[in-house]
Amino acid sequence: MNDKRIEELKQAYEKPRMSKEQVEDMKKRIDEAKMENRRSQKYVGKGIAAAAAVVIAAFVILPNTSASVAHAMENIPILGKLVEVVTFRDYQYEDERNHADIEIPELVPQTFQQDEVVSQETGEALTQEENTEAVQENLKKTTEEINAEIQKITSQIMEEFEGNLQYEWGYQDVMVKSEVISTTQDYFTLKLICYQGAGSGAEWDYFYTIDLNTGERLQLKDLFKEGADYITPISENIKTQMREQMAADDMKHYWVDDEIEGLNFKQITDETSFYLNEAGNIVISFNEGDVAPMYMGCVEFVIPNEVVGEIRK
User: Fold this and answer.
1) What is the distance between the alpha carbons of residues 238 and 60, in angstroms, rounded to a whole number?
2) Which residues fall within 8 angstroms of residue 155, CB to CB, at 6 or more apart?
3) What global pTM score does this model have?
4) Residue 124 binned pLDDT confidence (cut-offs 50, 70, 90)
5) Pairwise CA distance, residues 110 & 259, whole Å
6) Which residues have C-beta within 8 Å of that of residue 256, sequence separation ≥ 6?
7) Would you place residue 81 in the very low, low, confident or very high pLDDT band (cuts 50, 70, 90)?
């Protein structure tokens, strides 16, 4: 990405808050910038690309960056106020070489009413009050854990970002935003959109999903029947999609059937990022450099229901 493109990106995101439309515009501009890179480069090995990105950037960007100014954003009610998102920290920095526009989200659980359900542990019916208290306690614990995870990462990254300010070479351009996506009455998903530009652009996406029926953080295995093998069918379908996309578009390249065996994507894990879209499909997400060259950006694969329908809960 050239300096002109970086400057255009910077100017587009100087506002401290971004609407959903602005976030989409950011993603579009990033994609356009990456297309420019495609015209001038072929893919290189995963290790080489990752190393080059570190050298050029002179820092590592993770889901969030800490900030010195704390303020509350306008409350955004989500699904009957089960969860609200506020801006816990907002950090803005700019000089001739360094630019940071970072908003750190915080999840805030809300009180709510819930119908009677059956306890999964005892099989006995819980009263509305008992069930509501259990879910709200879980929701409180879950949001606290997610917030702590985000804040720990942001503190580490801020130290790194500020540490690099002493150097009189290189450029840093960091943006972190959040977005509530594909949320249904059963699930709440927060997406963290992270962008770093320094000679070339890079984006990382992170997903935090909460099961609103239990108040607990959703894991991939929670979507399937106990003992079911979901790793294999999902992984094989992703490989099929990779091959189909490469056959249809010679600008796309994934590490599958590659001559360098060590690069090839083999299978997902329980730690692989995912979320559920509005249609209820599982969407598997990979960050830049995970399963493809860096110029491919963050890539996602929607898993058709027929692939895992028989083993879904």
Assistant:
1) 28
2) 66
3) 0.69
4) low
5) 52
6) 239, 242, 243, 264, 265, 291
7) low
